[in-house]
Automatic annotation (TrEMBL):
<comment type="similarity">
    <text>Belongs to the tetrahydrofolate dehydrogenase/cyclohydrolase family.</text>
</comment>
<keyword id="KW-0511">Multifunctional enzyme</keyword>
<dbReference type="InterPro" id="IPR046346">
    <property type="entry name" value="Aminoacid_DH-like_N_sf"/>
</dbReference>
<keyword id="KW-0368">Histidine biosynthesis</keyword>
<dbReference type="Pfam" id="PF00763">
    <property type="entry name" value="THF_DHG_CYH"/>
</dbReference>
<protein>
    <recommendedName>
        <fullName>Bifunctional protein FolD</fullName>
        <ecNumber>1.5.1.5</ecNumber>
        <ecNumber>3.5.4.9</ecNumber>
    </recommendedName>
</protein>
<comment type="subunit">
    <text>Homodimer.</text>
</comment>
<keyword id="KW-0486">Methionine biosynthesis</keyword>
<keyword id="KW-0028">Amino-acid biosynthesis</keyword>
<keyword id="KW-0554">One-carbon metabolism</keyword>
<feature type="domain" description="Tetrahydrofolate dehydrogenase/cyclohydrolase catalytic">
    <location>
        <begin position="5"/>
        <end position="119"/>
    </location>
</feature>
<dbReference type="Pfam" id="PF02882">
    <property type="entry name" value="THF_DHG_CYH_C"/>
</dbReference>
<dbReference type="InterPro" id="IPR020631">
    <property type="entry name" value="THF_DH/CycHdrlase_NAD-bd_dom"/>
</dbReference>
<keyword id="KW-0658">Purine biosynthesis</keyword>
<keyword id="KW-0560">Oxidoreductase</keyword>
<feature type="domain" description="Tetrahydrofolate dehydrogenase/cyclohydrolase NAD(P)-binding">
    <location>
        <begin position="138"/>
        <end position="281"/>
    </location>
</feature>
<dbReference type="InterPro" id="IPR020630">
    <property type="entry name" value="THF_DH/CycHdrlase_cat_dom"/>
</dbReference>
Amino acid sequence: MTAILRGDLVARELDDATRIEVERLRADGIDPSLAVVLVGEDPASEIYVRRKRLAAEAVGIRSIEHRLGAATSQQSLLALIATLNADPGIHGILVQLPLPPQIASDEVLGAITPHKDVDGFHPVNVGRLSTGTGGLIPCTPLGCMLLLDRVIADFRGLKAVVIGKSNIVGKPVAMLLLERECTVTITHIHTRGLPEIARTADIIVAAAGSPGLVRGDWVKPGAVLIDVGINRIAREDGKTVIVGDVAANECDHAAVLTPVPRGVGPMTIACLLRNTVQAARLALA
Ligand code: GUN
């Protein structure tokens, strides 16, 4: 039998701890505040930004939304970021991705002051992560590790296979697993013999954005599966459903599986709030 590791329940516990930390910061005279910047009208981004705002408010973090039109120039976006960087009342800055094509995402992410970079995407934070020297850690990879911590006491020597090489999930989660002394293989859509590689894994982190990619026969009995996929697919009856990257109905022989929905998704948001209070603490230091 597979244990279902419910990220929504773990996220609730994290939020309780964050709420306490917010109260402590208030007592120290700091009102933790998060600026969320949304450019354009991407429907998925609208949903994520709304969720982030509601979640921030629920733990007592002030959230300020900046909405810019789809035709916004890179220069205006950089000007907004400069203003937010300079504002001592703002502790975290998040620019929702993807950005419209006229804007170079790497320039924008690189313009955020590293200690306000609650997404952990600034090159300084990426460098800190890869050298194990602190910094703000990207939210989804951090959420994956906090889930794994619930079911694995000692990571040393375990074989971890990461499927997906994105800057947002694949690469940073591989670094975090490596830091715990796992033997890490990063794979992607062009990897040859992916099923055989996946079958060697004690831990699989599936973050390819491909519905049901990880089949039952890719999974070693007793493996731990972290499903990062959030794929919207249209069913035959016309309804849209959200499915992960793991064919969950074929994986009864796994030891642990995170569901989709109610798995990694809620952890991402809880980690954003956790990073925001960490950033606010940095401002106090
Ligand atoms: N778009 C998809 N995932 C993310 C994320 O983690 N952070 C931001 N800023 N945008 C995203």
